[in-house]
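Lecture 7 notes: from sequence to structure.
We start with the chain below.
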Amino acid sequence: MQAKQVDFSRGSVTQNIIRVAAPMLVAQILNLMYNIVDRIYIGRIPGEGLLALGGVGLCFPFISLITAFTNLYGAGGAPLCSIERGRGNQEEAEKIMNTSFCLLIITGGILTVLGSVFCRPILALFGASDTSLPYALSYMRIYLAGTVFSMVALGMNPFINSQGFANVGMTTIFLGAAANIVLDPVFIFGFGLGVQGAAWATVCSQVLSAVFVLRFLTGGRAELRLQPKKPALHKKYVSDIIGLGSASFVMQCTNSLVQIACNRMLGAFGGDVYISTMTIINSVRHILDTPVLAIADGASPVLSYNYGAKRYGNVKKVIRFITLTALAYTAVVWVLILLLPEMFIRIFNNDGSLLTVAVPALHIYFFAFVFQALQYSGQTVFKSLNKKKQAIFFSLLRKVVIVVPLTFLLPYVGNLGAKGVFIAEPVSNVLGGSACFLAMIFMVLPELSGKKESGGQH
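Predicted C-alpha cells for the same chain:
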C-alpha cells in the first residue's frame, strides 16, 4: 500500500476534495457493505430471516450510541487537527489526536460493561417482543465484545484522512469490510450459527481494522504520530474535542432516539413485520446516503484546513461545491426510489407480506429527500469551521424537536397508524434541512466575506 498524501495547501479546492473524497467514497461503500452484508445474510436465514432481521434491527439504537461516542472523539478531534495543521502547529495537532485516542479507549470499555450488564432491559425498552428478543440478545451480546476495536478503527480513521492519507483511510475500511463479507456466510451458514455468526464475523472484522489503524498511526509514514504506550490524555484539549464532536454525537444520539421511537410505535401499530420494514428502510438509507456523505467527509478537512490557513475564498468554493453536488445526487436518489422501490427492498428479503408493507413505506420515507442535501451541507460547514453550537442546535432541531414528536403523534392523526411513523421523516427533511442551510448562508458567508484573506489556491 502506498501512503500518498494530499497536500491541502496546493492545487484547487475542488481537486483536493475529489482526491480525498474519491478514496473515502470507496471506503464509505466498503463500510456500508461492512454493515449491510450482515442484514442481507440474516434476512435470508431459512425460515426465520424476516423475524431475525427485525431482531437485529432492535440493536441499532445501541449500536448508534456506540457510533455517537466514536464520532464525539473522532469527528470532534479530526477537524481541530486539520485547523492546527493549517496553522502549522504540528505538535498541537498530535496532542489532539492522542487525546482522542485515550477518550475512545476509556469510553469503549465503559460501554462494553454497561451494555453487557443491561442488555436485556435495554432491548425491551427499544420495543423487543417475546419473539424478536432472543434474536436481538444473541446478536447484541457478541457484538459488544468488539466495541473498543470498533471505536478505535472508526474513531481514529478520521485522523488518517485529516493528514491527507485518504488511500490509507480507505484501506482501513476495506480490510474490515472484506473480512466481514468473507466471514459472514462462513459463520452464519457454514457453522450454522445464524444471528450469532453475523455478530462474530463483525467482531473479527473490527479487530482487523483497529490493528491496521494503530499500525499506521504509530509507524513512520504518518505525519502525526500516535503514542498509545504513553499517557496521552491532554486535559486542555478534552473540552474542545467534546465541544466540537458534540454535533456528530448529538446527531447519532438523536438517530438512536428516533430508532427507538419508530420501533416502539411500529410495534404498537403494526407488529414485527413493520419493525423489519424499518430495518430495511434504514439499510436502504445507508446505501443511498453513502456517496453524499463521502463528499461531505472529503470536503470537511479541506474546509477546516483552508479556514485555519485564512483562505476564506477557498472555503466559499468548498461550500458551493458540496451544496450543488448534494442537491444533484439526492434528486437522482428520489427519482430512483419512486421508480424502483422493490429493487431496493429485495436486496434484503423477498417475502410477499414484507413487500406489501415496505413499498409504500419506502415511498413515504424518501419523499422530499432532496431537502436532506441542505442538512448535509449546513452541518458539514458548521462542524468543519468549529461552529459547534450551531451544529448541535440543528441536529437537535431536525430529530428531537421535529421527528421524535411527530413519530409519536402522527399515528394517532386521521387513523394514519404505522404510516404516520414514516411520514415524520420527510416533514423533518423539509423543515430541518431548510432551516439549517439558511442559517449557514446567513451566518457563515457574511463572516467569511468580512475577514482578511491570506491568499491561496485557485
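Points to note: Residues 80 and 93 are 7 Å apart (CA to CA). The chain has a mean pLDDT of 86.
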